[in-house]
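Discussion board: Methods & Data

I've been asked by a reviewer to show the raw model output for two of the constructs in my manuscript, not just the figures. I'm not sure how much to include, so I'm pasting the format here to get opinions. Each protein appears as its amino acid sequence followed by a line of discrete structure tokens. Is this the kind of thing reviewers expect to see in a supplement, or should I convert it first? Here is construct A:
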Amino acid sequence: MANEYLVNKEDLTAVAKTIRAKTGNNNRLVFPNGFVSAINSITTTTEEVPTNGEHLIRVIDYDGKVLKEARADTGYVFTLPSLPSHDRLTFSAWSSPVDIVNNTITVGDSDIFIGANYEVHSGAIELDVDVNTNTGLSLVFYDLDTDDTIEIDWGDGTVSNASSVDGSANHTYAAQGEYTVKLYGVTKINRYSFCNGDSAVNDYAIKRVFIPSTVQLSNYALYNLCNLEALVLPCLMSGMLNQLTTNSYALKCLIIPPAVTSASTKISYHAGTETIVFPKGVTAIGTNTMAYSSALKYFSLPETITTIGTYFLSNCFAIKKIKLPNSVTTIGSYFCKNEDNYSVINSITFGENVTSIGSNFLASATRGLELLDFSKAKQVPTLSGTFTIDNPSCKILVPQSLYSSWKSATNWADVA
């Protein structure tokens, strides 16, 4: 008998149908040789994905877990994984820098990073906290907006209510441990709502934050949550905010929701983030967007971005290759400045439409630089101020048709 294949091992409906087909009974399940024998007779397939291609394709969950990945060449059609599920979260959408068609993407000429977005089942802001002798046994919340009343379930059987939260919402646990705090009725998380500025209150206790789509965020909303490991942002938010996750040293990934069109200043400033997912639709990136994210290794920019602000990748010491999409026209000053020349960047590839590059865009980031690739450029970009390259073997690759004009262009002549 030919084997029957199930692509989705968890699809119990398909399992039931297959067993019915084996028994010839479409109305009820019959297991002539026992249930285990029937299940064991079903063979499942595993999709073979390429592992030796030029580009890394990676799909991640909210906590940084890799759901699926491949190394594929341009043109490969990559199938996204089954929708992830969690007890407290409902999958809402993928954040992707490229179009998703029938649950597939087509690989272009760069790496692609895709992330999962969720809605929170409870409709509340949920905080997983770990209180102990190091963090202290107390939590305090500040400046949370509501249209009515905020109900706080502290996770230990205690519930409190407040018409406003301005530091008066506090709780001390009787014992050390991990708790899930739920805040119902909050409409907006304001500046320093969970940390009170640079104070030590809550800084190390909060480990996971789930925010429903009904809640708005202000600048500095999640500031200084030093032990924050995982974050679910409101899936409907349209703009990333200033210093959103500053000093989140334990945060593994930052998935920007698909409705976001602009990434503001310092969204991942001084963070430990390894992967940042930018969705298609983002058109502008602000100043210091990922500066001092010393662990950052993976990101891909969508073909909708036209402007990159100053200090974009300043002091990001783990990035080796940078590839900018064709849509980028303007690159700000100090693009990848690195203090003390710790940079490990070895190549930067520019798109075809770049027209302007700010001053000192390579400041102290050229020790290991081997290639500046402008081979797709349609014109010589204006360079605001000159720069030096510390590696004498570094090459600047330009189109043959622009070679002479490039060498003689203002400021480019100094490094040609």
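Construct B, same format:
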Amino acid sequence: MKTFVRWCFSLLGAIALAISIPSANAQQPVKIGMGISQTGGLGSGGKAALLAIRMWVEDVNAKGGLLGRKVELVVYDDQSNPATTPGIYTKLLDIDKVDLLIGPYASVPTAPIMPLIKQRDLLLMTNFTFELNRDLKHDKVFNNAPWTDAVSLIGGVFRIGEQAGAQTVAFLAADQEFTQNVTNGAKNIAKKQGLRTVYDQTYPPGTVDFSAMIRAVRAAKPDIVFVACYPNEAVGILRGVNEIGVGESVKVFGGAMIGLQFTPVMETLGSLMNGVVNFTSYAPEKTMEFPGVKDFLARYAKRAVEEKVDPLGYYLPPFSYAIGQMLEQSVNATKSLDPKILADYLHKNEMQTIVGAIRFNELGERLTPSVPLVQFRGIIDKNIEQFRNPGKQVIVYPPDLKTGDAIVPFEKARK
């Protein structure tokens, strides 16, 4: 009898153990890994983007997580250094054993990990990259940015110039992957429109003094001045424009100036931005009141003060949050974390996000781009709150987002 009882208890224990093992496995978190700049030149944008992704993690976990499991974010600082990202993503995959990947912020840190993603046939949600999958053609890369190519990003600059009678153009660009790719695209647009190039200057990253270049631009008397630069350079260029001027001939000035989307730079430059026409991703205008975006930005603003990141968070945060939304929808719909299954779903279905409905083309870029080209107007110095109001970043292109006509020439728009 005692033997029988011991046998029963042993059997029950074995059954309990068998049940507990899969139960424990089921409770393992869904790990999402990423490297993103928290320091260095891209650190300001990276911090804001990371806050938005963490907000999504909190939101999805409040709803029960993914596949009944909590979501855990595994993050490393890539220090704005592209040399660090291959090692970071190898560690995420081989040591941390993450289930899903989100790319770094921007093209330069993301480009070095693309071969790894292709080689291992992984899904990657990229974060504001530009044409990185054009040559690689990996069917599991999806970009959260609202653009597709140079035409969708900055083509409006040349359309506005054309309408104003422009015949000549000057190019000023940093010698970096994103800025050079965009500028090459801009040159193709200019060539198709029959514009004559009167000045073309590439400068090394980190350049501080732009006075000689601004004088050269002024001497060339272009109708359009196309600029592709990074935040610190944007400050130097616009200060040079303010001190030296670019001349009465310039009808449109701007294009792809990274920095004019970030609150610290906007606050630093203030009135120096007036008249500039530049791409962004979001502006507080009536045509961009997508479902959920106002609520997100209100919640973000409170957290941003606590965490000392970009207080407005217009440029990256809504789109970073949208990455989470797209992963959530894909996983919930397919009940899977398999890269092939998720990629297939993302290619075939429309994603509902706080930055609008998104469909992807075969390269994982926007099927229908939606990039607001804004003109800064009536900006005063040292006033962050003004940027929360409509009318300060008037959307002048494309037609479906447009909230006002561009003021030309540039000198008139600056006043």
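Answer (T.O., handling editor elsewhere):
This is acceptable in a supplement if you add a one-line summary per construct. For B, something like: The two ends are 99 Å apart (CA to CA).
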